[in-house]
Amino acid sequence: MTSYDRNNVFARILRGELPSTTLYEDGLVKVILDILPINPGHLLVIPRAEAVLFGELPEEHAAAMFRAAQRMTRALRQSGIPCEGVNLWLSDGESAGQEIAHVHLHVIPRFAGDGFKLRMGPGNRRPLAKERAEALAQSLMAVL
Predict the structure, then answer these.
(1) Bridge partner residues of 87 (DSSP)
(2) Is the full-model pTM beyond 0.70?
(3) DSSP characters for the chain?
(4) Domains of the chain, with CATH numbers?
(5) 39-73 pLDDT per residue, tens
(6) Which residues are catalytic?
(7) How many Cα atoms within 13 Å fall on the side-chain side of residue 55?
(8) How far is Cα 144 from Cα 130, in angstroms, rounded to an integer?
(9) What would the pLDDT profile of 74-124 be if each residue is shown by its tens digit?
(10) Under 8 Å CB-to-CB from 93, ≥6 apart: which residues?
């Protein structure tokens, strides 16, 4: 388990110590507007559980995050905010781009020409040999 800092910005928002624009909250999650949005209407779904990584969350909190995200995608599409599509983005760990050490899910409204891109590196998206795929699957199945 990764060390959790109870003074991270999301923990402080959840305790009401820092302001946020809240759209939804229940006993498991809180949904707020991102203050540095990729596009207008960019939301963050923050679980109330103290967890840095997604795998550390109790399953009910993980499920609640995605239930809230689904509800928010419907709201975005009906709101009049430019939203032709939605990206759900969860960076799990520093190497994956996680900047705040508290699990959170971005709900990002997208529209043609918005300028936001996810880019692959030159070593990504290469064909996987069957033997390598089998070895990877065996490694995962051994711990499931």
Answers:
(1) 108
(2) yes
(3) -PPP-TTSHHHHHHTTSS---EEEE-SSEEEEE-SS-SSTT-EEEEESS--SSGGGS-HHHHHHHHHHHHHHHHHHHHHSS--SEEEEE---SGGGT--SSS--EEEEEE-TT--------TTSS----HHHHHHHHHHHHHH-
(4) 9-119 (3.30.428.10)
(5) 999 999 999 999 999 999 999 999 999 999 999 99
(6) 104
(7) 5
(8) 21
(9) 999 999 999 999 999 999 999 999 999 999 999 999 999 999 998 888 888
(10) 53
The residue type of 119 is: R
Residue with the two structure tokens 């880019």: 119
Size (the chain), residues: 144
